[in-house]
Each structure stands twice: as structure tokens, then as C-alpha cells.
Amino acid sequence: MALCIGVMGAENQPLLIKISPNIQDPIKFHFMLHSALDVVEEKSQPLPKTPGSISGADLRELYLGLLYPSSDEVRVYGYCANTRMKMILIVEASNTTLRDNEIRTMFRRLHVAYSNMIMNPFYDVGQPISSKSFHDFVDSMIAAFGVGKLVNPTLYSVEMEYFEDVPTLTGIRLLLRS
């Protein structure tokens, strides 16, 4: 289960930090999020240019993977977008069913939801996130991560049904989210 999701801006300022309501000590997770930023900065550096490579090409991977196993209780994963916006996920270490591919997919969905949210012309990039739909999406990820029922983060409401880890469309409603 996802215990904590953090979205940090380009200057490492917290835009959104959501912690599972079952957590007894939220300060501990704030500390883990902020200490993970150092590892994210180190891992998100562009690869050195090689002879014959395209000049100016940024060849880094967005998904940073496991940043560090902070303890026997949790694992910390990271993602850094091209705009230097960072996402950090803290999951239970006891959840052995989580594969790296599932965490990568979760970060992609979170990035799509973030991209849809910043398309709002009234949102100032770099300010704390106040979008209700984005908060609801992150809450649904914390509540259902690892269960297989995630809200689709697209601008339109899409109903998804999961059968043996293969998503299939069951119907599309073209309703704009507020």
C-alpha cells in the first residue's frame, strides 16, 4: 500500500504531500520525503555526452526507481520530470507483490494527472496544489494502490476495468472534470 506521495517543485518546494490516514507519525514521512530529494537530485543529473551523441540532448530517465530502502518498514521511489518537478512515493516494504513496472505505471499516471492539472490557466506553476480533482486522484492512489483500482487521471472520465492486470475499456463518458 502507498503510505505517502509527495510532489515537489523544481526548487524542491513541496507542492503536495499526502500521507495515508493510517500513519501514526506523519513527521517521519515528511522527513523521508525531504531527505529523498538529495538522492533524486543526484540520480536525475543528465548523463555525460558521448562522442556522436546529439548535442544538447538530455538522456536521463524520468523514472528513478528505488531511491533507497530507508528501513525494513518502507521503500522510497522517485520520479523526476523534464521540468524538474519531482514525485516521491513511499510504500510498505512488506508488500512483496509490487513490481517495478507497477510503480513505474503509477508514476506515469500521476504525471499525467499533474500535467492535466497545470493546464488550468488559473494555476500558478510552483505554487501549492489546490486542485480538488488532483487531490482526489492522489487520495485514490493512496487508498487503492496495490489493489488494482486506480482512478484514470485524464481530463475526461474513463471507466476502466482490470482483469488479471490487463486494463480494458468498458465505456467512455465524455464529462469534463471540475
TrEMBL record:
It holds the Pfam family Sedlin_N. Its main location: cytoplasm. InterPro entries: Longin-like_dom_sf, Sedlin, TRAPPC2L. It is found in: Cytoplasm, Perinuclear region. CDD domains: TRAPPC2L. One of its GO terms (biological process) is endoplasmic reticulum to Golgi vesicle-mediated transport. The keyword Transport applies. Keywords: ER-Golgi transport, Transport. One of its GO terms (cellular component) is perinuclear region of cytoplasm. It comes from the Eukaryota. Belongs to the TRAPP small subunits family. Sedlin subfamily. This is Trafficking protein particle complex subunit 2-like protein.
